[in-house]
Amino acid sequence: MIGTLGGFDGHGNMVVLYTVERMVFDRYYCDLPIGLVIVRGEEVVVCGELYPTAPELPSNMILVTRDEMNEARKAERNSSFLRTTMRRLMNFLECVSDD
């Protein structure tokens, strides 16, 4: 999540304004606007400052819509499933040919 820190307390709880959730997959990314978020301090892993002059993302990253991101993820899952199925089939055929 990326946003503007609106406030915090002694327990590390934070109010984050103008928040977007950045989804990254391979070389694609999309920013989903959320708005105001209240985060419990125990859920915070890292919190830091983004410098306005530094590039936010590597130059090879491509901004896509949420639907395009979901399609890319779905295609990767299908591709992974096919690779796994083919490996299993090849292993089976090797076992059968050895007999």
TrEMBL record:
Key words, A-Z: Ribonucleoprotein, RNA-binding
Molecular function, one GO term: RNA binding
Chain segments annotated as transmembrane: none
Sequence ranges assigned to domain Sm in this UniProt record: 2-47
InterPro entries for the chain: LSM_dom_sf (IPR010920), PTHR15588 (IPR044642), Sm_dom_euk/arc (IPR001163)
Record-level GO cellular component terms: ribonucleoprotein complex
Protein name, entry field: Sm domain-containing protein
Organism: Riccia fluitans
